[in-house]
Every structure is written in C-alpha cells, then in structure tokens.
C-alpha cells in the first residue's frame, strides 16, 4: 500500500499510523523527506485499506496493490462470472432479467413469465416484498407472492430474482429466490448486506440513486466480506436536475466499473428512464458501455400495472431489446444466453 | 381530496379509481367536462392519498384536505412539540444535541458530555452502532457503547440520542436511548422505520442525501403510521457537484418543512459542512431558516477522533453556536432550552 | 395549442390570456367547466408558446401542435440533415469530428489532421479562441490560429469546426469555419446565439453542464429563430456528484432529443469522460443511444497537450472508435461518412 | 507557491515546469526525494497560478501565498468594501437591492422604487435587457428601459443595478447603471466579463447555477484582472434534484466565500426560492451565513408581473426582510445601510 498522510501531522497521529502498520505486519518507509508518502510492504488483507482510511492522519490510500479489497480487479484478473440458474453474467456472456415490478396475480405472472422466456430472458424479476416511498402504498403480496414465484419457476424453468428488504426475511426469501435483489433504497443497509453475504446465493445489488461509485463498491464489499462472492452490480440511474428521464443512467459508471472490479455489471434502463419510450435506447447504451446484461420491467397489460406503470414495456418491445443485446454483444465477441430465442439471434 | 386524472383514460383505469373511491366511502364528482379533475367528498384517512397515487390513472393528488397524511400541517395547526428528557423541539423552544460521532472510551465520553452540558446541550449524541460505507471500518462499540451511554446519562442527566441500524436492535437500543437516531443511510429502510414506529420513543430522522423532501416526509410517515407521533426531522445536507462543503445544507427544505409539516425540524451543520471552520455559519443559517434545534459533532480532542474527524468542533466552538442559537431564537420570540448556560444567554 | 391555466385565476390575468389569444388570431374554448384547460384553435407561429408561457396565469402549455417551435419534430417529420463540408449529420448518416482541444503549432495541427482524416474523421475540431475558467489560462492563438485552420483545411480537405466566443468575432471566425462551435459556457449567451443565427453557416451547439434539455432546445431556437436552420446539438455531459468521470454523459437526453427534435444530435465523450481510458465506452454508448456522430479530442503527443490533456486520445484509439461507430451504425441501417477509412468499415 | 506534480513525470513535462518557473523568476526546490512537491520562492503575480495549472505535469497548486489571485484574501486582509451610490457592501455594512425583475412602465417603476426606498433599499434593481431562456420571451425594454431607470434614479436617489448581456452594450448601460449586473447565464461569458472589467464601475456578479465556487471566483478574476476592483459576488442558488424550491441556496458557499475572498458577498433569495412564501426564510439564512446584503425581487402588483412572477414579494414583505436583516446584522456588530427606515431598525 501507499498512503498519503496529511501534511504537518501531529506526533500522536503519526504514531497511530505507524503503530497500526506494525501491528498488521507491514514494513514501512517514507518515499519523501517530508514524511507525506508512506509505503507499506508485506502481505496485506482486504480490510486493511479501510483501517488506514479511518485514521485521521491518512489523507488517502493511493495504492492498495498488496491489500486489495475483494471487489477490486487485480491487473490481468479475468471477470468473475456469476451463474444464476439458466443465466450467466460476466466473461463473454450476457443475460436478461425481465418481469413485472411486483407479483400481482398468478395468471398474470405466468403470462408474463412465459412471454419473456420465449423472447430472450433466462431470469424472471418480480417483487413479493416491495420497497415503497409511502407506508400506505402496496408493499407486495409477501409470502403469497413468494409461493407464486416458486410455482412459476417450476412451470417455466426461469430463475427467480426477487427483492429482500429485511434481514429477518433473508432465509424465507432464499427458499424461493435464485438471486437476491437488493434495491437501491437498501444499498446502504449494512445489516441486510451482511445477512445476504452469509448465504451463498447470488446477489443483484442496485446502486442507490444518491451513491458514489466508491460507496456502491463498498456496499458490494459488505456482501463479499462475508464470503459470498456472487455479486452482480446494477446501475439503475442516479438523481439529476432534469425531469426528462426519471434518473440519469450513468454509463460512465458502467464503463468505470468494468475496469475497476471483476464483478459483473448490469444496467436497469427501466428505472433510469421511468418512461417506456426511452427504455430501448438506454438498454442499448448500457450494453454498448460494457454491461453484462439488463434487468427490465415487462408487463403484458400495461394499463393494469399497480406501480411504476409508465415504464413497463410490452413483451414485443422486450424482444427488440433482446435482439439489440445479442447484436451488440456479438460486435465484441460476446453472446446473450437465452432459452429459446430465434436462431437469428444466436451469435 | 382533489385528484387530477390522466387525460384520455381507458375505461378500466377510470373504473378502478371510482371503485376505490366508493369502497373508501367517498362521494365523487368531476369538476370539469373533460373528466380530469375528480373531487372526493367525505371523511378520509391518512392512507388514502397513497392508495390513489398508486393507481396508474391518477396523475396527481392536488388537495388532500379531508385525508391528510399524519405529517401534514392542517391550516392553523400548531407545531407538535417533541420532548426528549431535558430537550424540547418545536413550538417556541429549541434544543441542542451535541457529542462525539462514535462512543470511544469512558473518560472521553464523560469529558465531552460534561463539556457540552455546561455549554448549552440538553441531549448527548454518540453512536454505539455506526453505519459505515466500508465493512472494514469501525462499526462502533455495540453493547459496550450502549452501557457507557447509560452510565453517562446517569451521571450527567443528559438525554441520549443514539443510532439504531438494524430492526433487530430496536429493543436493545431503546433500553438506553431517550431518542432513536435514524441515520441518512437508513431513511429508506422501511422495516427499521416501522420497528421504531412501534415504540413510543422519540425518533430523530435524518434526510438521506439523495432524497426529495416528499420522500423524507413519507419516511416520517412510516413511523407515524405505527402510532409513534414523536418524530423530529433532521436536514443534514444533500449531495451536490461542488466539494467546498461535503454536502449542501438545504435551507430551502428547512423553510418549506416548517410550513408543510407540524413536526419539528433540526439542522445538522456538522455533516453538511464536513469541515469544522464552516460549522458555525451553517448552524446560524439553519436556525435563521426556522430550525427548532441543531445536532452537532463536538469532541474534546479533535486530533484523536476516529471517524468524521475533520468536522468535529471544540466545546468552546460549540458554546459560540449555543449563544448564536439563543440570540437568533430570541429575535423570533423563541428560546433555547438548556441546563446551565450563563444568564446572558437566557432570552 | 392547449394551455393549462392556474386555478382560481384573478380576472385581469384571465383577460390578459384571452386578449393575447385574440390578438394572435386564435379562437378559444375551455375544455372544462373550471376554466382550467384552454384550447386555442387557428394557425399559430413558433413564437406563440413562449408568449403564453410568459404570462403569469399560464401554468403550462400542454400541446403546441399548431404553434410548434422551430426545433420541434412534427409527427412523422424526418430528420433534418446538416451537411458540413464532407460531413453529414442526421438521417441515416453519421460523421466524426476530431482534433486537438486548441490549435498549437502548425506541424502539430497538420500531423493530427492528417492522422484523423485517415482514420475516419471528415471534420477537424480545434480552438483558436478558447473559453477558459481562468483569465490567466491560455486563451488560444486567436487570428494566428484561424490562419492555421484555413491552411490545414486547404491541405487536407477536412471541414473546420471551431469555437466562437464573442459576437464581435462571428464574421472573422466565419471566414475560416465550416461550422461554428458554441461551447457549453456560451449556450446561455443570447447575443452570440443570435449573431450566429444571422449567418447561414452550420452551428454545433453544446449543452451547458447545468442546463435542462428544454433550456438546451431553446438555445437552439435562438439560432433557428434568426433563420439559420443548420444546428447540430451536442450532449457533452452534465454536472454530477461523483468524480469518477468529469461529467455525466446524459444518454437519456440523447434518446429524448432524437424523438423531440428533428435536429441532429452528437455526443462528446471526451469532455464527458475527462479521462482517456473511458472515452471509447462513452462513445459507443452515445451512438447506441441514437447519436448522429461524435466530437472527439485527439492528439498525436498526449504528453504535450496544453489543456484538457488527460482526456485526449491517440489517433489509434480514435480509429477504434471510428470502427465501433461504423459497426453500431450498421446495426440500424445507418452509415458513417468518411474519406478513406478501410473497406472493412463500410456498411 | 507549492506545487504538487504528477508522479512519475516524463522529463519533458518536468522541464516545462522548471522552465516556466525560471522564466517567471522563481527559485525552485523539491520538498521530497520523490520530486513531487515543488516549492517556488520569489515574488509572484496573480496570473502565475493559472499558468502552472495549465501545465499537464502539475497536479495541483497547494499554496499560492506569493502569487495570490486578486480575489484571494491574504491572512488578516480586511474586507474590500464596495460602495455603490448610497449602498455599501462589506466590512461592517450591509445593503439591500430591491425592485422588479424587468422594467415595465414608468408609473409602476416609480411606485416600486418609492416603496422599496422607504422600506430599506438603497439600490434599485430592474432589467432593461433581460436574459431569457426563449428567444420569443420578453427581452426587456432596452434603451427605453434604460431611460426610465435614469429618470427614476434622478427622482428617488436610489442607485441603479441593471444587467448587461452583450459586450457591445457595456458603454451604453454604463451611462445609466451605478452597478452592472452580470446574470447567472453570463457568468461564463469571458468577453463580457473582460469588458465590464475595463470600466471602473461596480459589478454584481451572479453565480451560474451549474458553477463550482472555484469557477465563480475565477469569473470574478476576469473582472479584477482588468483593473476593476469593485466586484460583489452573488449566490443565487444552484441546480438540485428536488423541486420544492427552484434552486438550492448554497449557504455553505456564502460561508466559504467570506473566508476565501476579500470581496463582498450577497444572496439572492428570490431566485433561489422561486416562490414568494419562502423568500424571507432564505433571506435570513443568507444573512446569518455571513452575506453582506441581499438582492430581492419586489413588485407592487404581484398579479401583474411579466416574468418570474411567482417569486416577487410585496413591499411590506420586503420591509420585514429589511428589519430581519438589520436585526441579524446587529448581532454581529454590523449594520444595514438605508435611507429612511424607521429608527427602530437602526442598530
């Protein structure tokens, strides 16, 4: 590691830094006569960077080569591929997650699942527990919704991606989910992240609309630190000052993440756009920026949707996006994983 | 209530709206020939607005007069005053919460508590459970920290404001806390809000740095909906594009909240500024905009602080702010509640 | 047009609205009994929407069908194609603008121009007048720079895109430029927009990093209103709270603009990224979202660049982007216009 | 000066830095063995910092003690006081600028001017040239408006603050204005800033809603660099993601500016709030954060206003703010300068 210390550091602060380094087994040397750049040599661990950053005398950790955090991509390190039932994210493979915002009724759920499976999805999204801004809004069907998800999984073979909101529900949701979804509102929920980290089930982690990329990566680190290595990062748009789209899809973050971490990255153009007519363009932009897949809100009767209705797209619009994804992936020698999409799609 | 419906509404969506209105006991009438403005008459309840907002056909709820949410201030409704041990927020009274970011050692905690009590604080802040960006950062002393808080409360008479992060800790933290703090990272944590709502203990709810004011008020509503009426809102700065201050203290939100809700509002100039030299000016701005108190990070040895060090102020700097607060409050016929601040302060 | 008026409008405000409508030759009728929705029938003009928006009693102009502003795309209206020397933007054709941030020396300029011409650019960018944050920074070579641009145009056949900052320089810059660049800092400079609007030379208009899309379109309208129809809109990133990239490339705005206006749209991934290693990914995202071309900062000796150095890419990196652009365009049945790019590129 | 150079700097970049230092007459020495911190000794000039910042090899200018820019406050340097006709900004004196958004009719202008003069204003604002988002909106009365301003100045004794938009109008506007206003949309207009810098008339410079504080200060430097030392900085709110207020009044920036620069700072609560009912609270917050005055939109018939109507306050609301300002100023030993405000106000 290479630390930049604050200039003109009081002696106790300097001693705290050197003491911690010694305790953790590092050899220390200053690069400069001004005692500003401190090199730590020895074999470190992923938690060391944060331990030093916590000290008031440390201005910044400039290099963390011998103490990389678990999400960090070492030079030359290949992508981690996360496999979720029929879906695969990362490496040269992309997958699509599609489905309704919330689980509503059994016939509707089956109809949507069948439709998206036939058009390129390997994973079904659908909330049984919905995080809502208002305590009075529909909070999901709960256990009844979970049962429907289990049944649709059995009938269609689609893997299930569903949200968990409460650390006390992790076990129960895990009985049905193939992949936990951690929503944007939960990205900063340390106890929840820790609890899903204790499982060995894949996690789709959404970026909070107010979070920096560093904070997003550290949220993933909460899961990884518990030994669960199956994290997929999801960029879903951040807050901006204009209202043309609900959020700003941060394609720069997607591009940056593909370099900074070995974890797969997907985009959520539905929540970024907040309006159905712009979802396809944002989906394309996300894949072109490097994303390993998409999560999309799809519904078979758009006029009936209970929440987030304006952004749900039809199955046919979803198929167009699946075709776009396959074509864009092919330009990079990547391929879209899917069940039964027409031969024309296969790269 | 007055609803604005989407124009050219499909029949099933209109029926869904009229059906819900009928089910909830409202008489309905359109204000206009275009069936866009729907008046609902009858006696409503606080949850009705969200029920209508959830329907796709409802563009906006323009008036909620007969179905006000619990946080809303009715015309002429006085401030709710929240009393916390020696502190009182709202009405004509202001209080100051001061203390370290995290509970560290017993001597230090006692020293800080004694210092802030003598200079104008009635409540002590200090985290036993700290929400951190990194899983490897100091997460607080936990139960040991709670014990120290109980002891310092007994020795000084200060009320304790301390954070709860996990719904499973609400009971345990509540044995020590006079007021739960819900941090900015937990504002969107519905299960946690619900759990503190089930208690009858005051709650200091911080605004997430990415949340709109409407979302902030609805987070309070999660607590209020459970029957806990003792919520104090805390504006602590939102994310901005400049790095002069860590966050932007949204004084416009403070001013707006004092009109829109009957709940007390306090400002956190420490987290907004992120640097000690600007805390006083932001504290003054917050009070001048209408805040009912402040929460401030104070430490007796600034060079030793474990986290958020750069923003902690000294007890003497805190005393200046207490004097400012008393003087500003007096201009409006308000007063600062305190234990032993010098007579000069009393309005 | 369809206006939404403020509710409970005082009589003089209502009269002002009806009076203006009458003066402009519209027949008026209220859609609703509440006098909130006012329909204006008759043949309008592009300036009418703003005249009504200026009135205090008008809450919003909901439809402007019979009085579209000049930038608005009518239903079914095809793209306006802007032709600039060898470049063409819009319709099914894309073009690339490439070159240094500022004109520095003649050999360097010629070297860069030759390199980008051979790799897919039809237009050369390069500032003779540079808008800078500091009065003491290099402001460009001025007339000497213009002379070099004229010379490099003659020698390479590339069209010249160069910035004009001052309304008093419009004529002088126009003697050399094939296309005026209006920088992000000048998007709100009405006198300058008016002055370039009086010419008949194409204008590349950059979005201010703090502007809404509506403000951006109205800036274009300043040019169009003077009779100059050759405007290309350039999204170059807006201000955000994270510093991973210098700005946020707003791909949602690109997608929206392609629907809302008939004017061509290009992306500037160099200024959005602010770092060379992410330029390619943002370039791809911009094209995939629908952009009609790119403007890129390219330099042959990156270590020597005077300003904005960290974001300049090499000619070889530019060629990769040109190949990406051609391949992405081909997926949509579009093509990249270029001089001599290898056959493999041609769609 | 103290420079931090980029690490592992190529030789030509290092030579460029040392060469410039030598050319400008500095003695150079590295603080560290890693050649990262370069001390420049000797007597510098205000333009030197930007010259070094322009070099690619310079990561940051850490100290500019011997080459301070003109806006920077040297240790212990008192406030610059800017005097404008009857108004004085800075030091221990505050002034209020009030008036309509735009000059409309002579009777209305006289009425407003008389009203604000009697209630605490020493300066009248009012635009003859209005910067508008749309080319079709009312752009002001132009020369006719200037004539009315000259006449109202003669009749009331109020100083005139009015906007100049175009460098070609500086002379003409200067014949009437006691203080040029540079609007937020013109903050990045270098030619305009340079032109008003060539005069010796005070300048009220508004911060662009998308500008960092550093960019704001450098805009002031454009004026100062021409020898015009009479600049008052105006914080008027920046863009945010919520729509409760039109903009975010950045009180942290006000507090920071009072430390970083010797120039006076005023707040514009009208444009920040964008709604009359919150103007008073924001005015108070601005003064409490340290502002040396306010600029406020006041109108005698709010229902009649042509632009920005919703934020204009009545003369009586203005008087409340004047009284607040006087009282808040008195708490710091400062005073409000005014013509005829009642004795009760005088500190």
CATH architecture of the largest domain in chain A: Alpha-Beta Barrel
Structural class of chain A: alpha/beta
Which ranges of chain A are low-confidence, i.e. pLDDT below 50, for 5 or more consecutive residues?
Answer: 342-347
Order of helices and strands of chain A: EHEEHEEEEHEHEHEHEHEHEHHEHE
Indicate the CATH class of the largest domain in chain A. Answer: Alpha Beta
CATH superfamily of the largest domain in chain A: Aldolase class I
Short synopsis of the structure:
Chain A is α/β, with parallel strands linked by helices and 347 residues long. Chain A has helices spanning 11-23, 48-53, 106-117, 143-156, 170-174, 190-197, 213-224, 251-260, 269-273, 279-288, 315-331; strands spanning 2-5, 27-30, 37-41, 58-63, 82-84, 87-89, 93-99, 123-125, 159-163, 179-182, 203-206, 231-235, 265-267, 293-297, 335-336.
What key attributes describe this structure?
11 helices, 4-stranded antiparallel sheet, Alpha-Beta Plaits, elongated, 2 domains, 9-stranded parallel sheet, TIM Barrel, alpha/beta, 347 residues, homotetramer
């Amino acid at each position: 590691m290479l630390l930049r210390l604050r200039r003109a550091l009081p002696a106790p602060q300097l001693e705290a830094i050197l003491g911690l380094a010694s305790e953790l087994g590092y050899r220390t040397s200053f690069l400069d006569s001004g005692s500003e750049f401190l090199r730590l040599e020895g074999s470190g661990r992923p938690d060391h960077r944060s331990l030093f950053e916590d000290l008031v005398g440390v201005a910044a950790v400039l290099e963390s080569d011998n103490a990389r955090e678990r999400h960090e991509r070492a030079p030359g390190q290949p992508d981690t591929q996360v496999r979720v039932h029929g879906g695969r994210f990362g490496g040269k493979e992309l997958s699509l997650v599609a489905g309704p915002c919330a689980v509503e009724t059994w016939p509707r759920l089956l109809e949507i699942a069948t439709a998206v499976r036939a058009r390129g999805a390997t994973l079904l999204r659908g909330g049984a527990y919905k995080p809502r801004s208002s305590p009075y809004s529909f909070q999901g069907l709960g256990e009844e919704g979970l049962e429907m998800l289990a049944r649709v999984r059995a009938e269609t073979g689609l893997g299930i991606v569903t949200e968990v909101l409460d650390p006390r529900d992790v076990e129960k949701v895990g009985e049905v989910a193939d992949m936990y979804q951690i929503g944007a509102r939960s990205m900063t929920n340390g106890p929840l992240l820790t609890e899903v980290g204790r499982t060995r089930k894949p996690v789709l982690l959404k970026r909070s609309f107010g979070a920096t990329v560093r904070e997003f990566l550290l949220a993933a680190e909460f899961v990884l630190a518990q030994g669960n290595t199956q994290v997929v990062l999801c960029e879903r748009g951040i807050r901006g000052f204009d209202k043309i789209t609900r959020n700003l899809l941060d394609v720069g973050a997607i591009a940056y993440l593909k370099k900074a971490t070995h974890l797969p990255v997907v985009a959520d153009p539905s929540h970024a756009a907040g309006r159905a007519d712009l979802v396809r363009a944002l989906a394309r932009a996300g894949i072109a920026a490097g994303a390993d897949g998409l999560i999309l809100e799809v519904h078979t009767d758009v006029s009936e949707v209970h929440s987030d209705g304006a952004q749900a797209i039809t199955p046919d619009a979803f198929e167009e996006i699946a075709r776009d994804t396959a074509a864009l992936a092919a330009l990079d020698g990547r391929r879209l994983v899917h069940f039964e999409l027409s031969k024309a799609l296969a790269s």
